[in-house]
Design a protein that fits this description.
Elements (H helix, E strand, L loop, with lengths): L5 H13 L27 E8 L9 E11 L4 E2 L17 E2 L3 E14 L2 E15 L4 E16 L21 H7 L5 E14 L2 E8 L7 E3 L10 E11 L4 E12 L5 E10 L3 E8 L3 E9 L4 E10 L10 E9 L1
Antiparallel strand pairs: 1-2, 1-17, 2-5, 3-4, 5-6, 6-7, 7-8, 8-9, 8-10, 9-11, 11-12, 12-13, 13-14, 14-15, 15-16, 16-17
């Protein structure tokens, strides 16, 4: 396809190959974006809204947004005594029941991604199960099943004339003609899985998304969007410096073929229950700051700014991300 503009020269490489799924900066605080095993990890009902605007300055920049919901399924505590048995000494309340070591959670994700003339919208449902092996050790697993709609906006593309680039396009590029002949819209079923192990303040998890690639699709498209499986490995440790000051360190390794493996690291300090601030670094791509505050016990606001560290720094003003989190 000869889309002769910025889409081909830059976005086609960066986003079509490396960003088939939306990418975000504040992953350390929103781990379920990549790994479904983290849904319900905090045993809270949560609603999270976020948006990111990348590589400002190019025009038609990648714009991503998401809406996450998660809720833990409460399991009733089991009695550990026979209420029909008469006893001479009352059983203390805290010993009358035994909390289940098993918990479940469900959630949903809406996300959208726009990059140049291409756009994607995803809707998914998530189920996660957690088992508390000991007071320190917890293992979790998650499953995500959804549908993605991939499309092409011909109004945002300019195409060269096949024979003479100085003339207007008059047809001849088969792939572009497929995109614009009302065959640009494709619906694809996506499957993702994830696992996580939590030991005290340390965690390590792995996830695979788009496992089914484009094997299950329907719609009016004859265009192959070339979906690939995306692999994520995430680990981190929460250092407790004092009772009021903690630092969460996180590292994320992404394998999103055909793009090279990428590494992202972050360190976020929390100051009491009110403020958090930190830094994040995407190897050979961006470096930035993360700040936020707890508006109330239920509502949290987070903002991050990323600046390019590679050759596009001369043309880009960086990127912004805003995340709103509400806990019921």
């Amino acid at each position: 396809m000869r889309i002769a503009l910025f889409i081909i020269t830059f976005l086609a490489f960066v986003t079509l190959q490396a960003q088939q799924m939306p990418q975000f900066s504040q992953v350390a605080l929103n781990r379920s974006l990549y790994n479904p095993a983290y849904v319900g990890m905090e045993s809270k009902t949560m609603l999270t809204l976020g948006g990111r605007w990348q590589m400002i300055g190019f025009g038609n920049e990648p714009q991503s947004s998401f809406l996450n919901f998660e809720k833990t399924i409460k399991i009733k505590s089991k009695p550990i005594y026979n209420p029909a048995m008469r006893v001479s000494i009352p059983i203390p309340d805290e010993k009358r029941t035994l909390k289940s070591k098993f918990s479940q959670a469900f959630g949903g994700q809406l996300s959208s991604d726009r990059y140049g003339a291409f756009k994607s919208f995803q809707l998914a449902g998530i189920y996660a199960a957690h088992y508390q092996i000991s007071s320190l050790l917890k293992v979790s697993g998650g499953l995500k099943l959804g549908i993605s709609n991939n499309g092409f906006d011909a109004d945002k593309a300019q195409v060269l004339n096949v024979s003479n680039p100085e003339l207007n396009y008059q047809g001849g590029d088969t792939e572009y003609d497929e995109f614009t002949a009302e065959k640009w819209n494709s619906n694809i079923i996506n499957l993702g899985v994830g696992v996580n192990v939590q030991y005290g303040k340390f965690f390590v998890g792995a996830a695979a998304n788009q496992l089914t690639k484009d094997a299950i699709q329907f719609g009016r498209s004859n265009v192959n969007f070339n979906l690939t499986s995306h692999l994520f490995f995430m680990t981190g440790y929460n250092f407790e410096i004092t009772e009021e000051f903690k630092i969460l360190t996180t590292a994320v390794v992404k394998k999103m073929s055909p793009a090279p493996t990428s590494l992202e690291v972050s360190a976020i300090g929390t100051f009491g229950d009110a403020l958090f601030a930190g830094v994040n670094y995407h190897h050979k791509a961006t470096a930035g700051l993360i700040v936020g505050f707890q508006v109330s016990s239920a509502f949290r606001v987070g903002y991050s700014f990323d600046a390019s560290t590679n050759t596009i720094i001369k043309s880009s003003f960086g990127g912004h991300e805003l995340v709103l989190n509400y806990r019921f």
